[in-house]
What does this fold into?
Amino acid sequence: MSTSPAPTKSWLLLWLLLTTIWGFSFFFIKVASSFLDPYEQTFARMGFGALALVSMVVATRRKFIVRGPAVKHLALIAVCAQVIPFTIFAWAIHHISSIAAGLLNSTMPLWTAILAILILPSEKLTQFRVGGLILGFLGLLVLLGVWDVNFQANWLAYTACALCTIGYAFSAIWTRKKITPMNLDPISAVATQLTIGAGVCAIFAIASPHEITSWPITGILAVTALGVLGTGIALVIAFEIVNRAGAIAMSTVTYSIPVVSTLAGVFLLKEKLHWYEPVGAIVVLLGIAIVQELIKPAKKPNTV
It folds into this structure.
């Protein structure tokens, strides 16, 4: 049996599509925030995503996941990786630009590396990787622009976005540790996950005192796209890329999402891009590459 990687052309188009969808998610969040509060937006987003994947489960005659242990872990992932981060980003987008939100989302692999080192015994912490962590956090400070008046006025929103991606990181580690060994069908698993998440969000959306006074067509289309594409279909594409090219190829989407979200913010929302945001993001990604050992220290020459 051949173990060679799949030809690039078999997954590159999917990779570009996934980058575009997830990159535009921050644009959709900003537009949907014009008429929905964070709880309503997160409920609508997860509801549309769940509806898309449940329909796919039914159409392809897959089985719904109802086993206790699997549902328990999927519920935990739904809360940590969807309900909390989605709500925080939807709230923060009222105070910061979609550009900043997209760039802060790129810090997720940094937290993933830290949690992997803490949770997974196979991950070793070397001096070089410690240097990568330090570099990553210095880059985060630059990305935030901690000296800037804009950050000082909205520090809570910036910090919340940076920290809530820990939920994404935790879900990746927990999936690898607890869910992957169960060999669940990915589409059925995500359908269950989003359905549980939508149910949790429904409670907060109903209890929210916010009253929707208008239903702009642009906002409705944005939240629908955010749910069906950015939350539902995108996860299916991600699993397909993993199947065709592996997890490493799929994880590189993280590095390209900020490019799309930044372009969408600048050209479609007319947001201002500060010089320190892309510079800080580059430093963060360099630190991540070191921690993930994509960049390794030069080997010392053998001495006679």
